[in-house]
Amino acid sequence: LLKDHWDRNNHLKKQEVWGRGNVYVNHWEAPTYMVSVEDSTLPGAGYDLKAAIWDAAKPVIEEWTGMEQEPSSLYGIRVYTE
Q1: Which of 10, 35, 46, 71 could cross-link 77 (Cys pair, CB 3.0–4.6 Å)?
Q2: pTM here?
């Protein structure tokens, strides 16, 4: 699912805008980009893709952790630069 989404849309990645003082990533030196799974303007993206990713990932994560999982954050594929 994610590989197909990446192959279809990586050329449409968008630079992320980080708020002043945000230090999650070194965005002031090396910008980050996102290929969103939520952005319905991207071919194949939107709620259905997001739900399919959760449906595929949930049993794998539950087996790995031994715990029941609930969906939380799922944005897309972040691209880090140097």
Answers
A1: 35
A2: 0.83
